[in-house]
Amino acid sequence: MQLDKIDLRILAVLQQDSSVTNQELADQVGLSPSPCLRRVKALEESGLIRGSVTLLNQNMLGLRLTAFIQISMDRHTPDRFEVFEREVMALPQVKSCSLVTGQSADYLLEVVVEDMDHYQELLLGKLTRIEGVTGVHSSFLLRRIVDRTSLPLEHLI
């Protein structure tokens, strides 16, 4: 999909606040509401806009512990990875899971839990019991320095 400057402005605004009304969005990008809505629909249909979410305050929900977990697997086979990924997707505490390279681990997980007791329960009761998991290394978040949900768009201008 070929993006123009108006499309990029639409994306920038929506990345900051997806709850903006179509009228507000149109005003901010310099369009009338109908063409603005058509552009948004086209961006959605192209797959560039994957969806909209509401971001919650994890501390206010009692999820005060964030851990970054490196997981090592015993074998690097599609069936082993498929089992692990299916099991991890079913765990609501897992905020993200990435297959990585360049380190001793195969997967990098970000998990959020209430406290260390719940972390231990997740780690020992679930993650280490997944078939093929041979190593786990955990690091704990002290403070977030950058916490963006938006992607950079400057390279497209």
TrEMBL record:
Query: What InterPro entries does this protein's entry cite?
Result: ArsR-like_HTH, AsnC-type_HTH_dom, Dimeric_a/b-barrel, Tscrpt_reg_AsnC-like, Tscrpt_reg_AsnC/Lrp_C, Tscrpt_reg_HTH_AsnC-type_CS, WH-like_DNA-bd_sf, WH_DNA-bd_sf
Q: Provide the alphabetized UniProt keywords.
A: DNA-binding, Transcription, Transcription regulation
Where does the HTH asnC-type domain lie? 3-64
Question: Per the record's keyword annotation, is Plastid included, yes or no?
Answer: no
A single Gene Ontology CC term = cytosol
Pfam short name (any one):
HTH_24
Residues annotated as transmembrane: none
Q: Which GO terms describe its molecular function?
A: sequence-specific DNA binding
**The keyword 4Fe-4S belongs to this UniProt entry's keyword annotation:** no
Instruction: Please give a single GO biological process term from the UniProt record.
Output: response to amino acid
Top-level taxon:
Bacteria
Name of this protein: Lrp/AsnC family transcriptional regulator
The top of its lineage is:
Bacteria, Pseudomonadati, Pseudomonadota, Gammaproteobacteria, Oceanospirillales
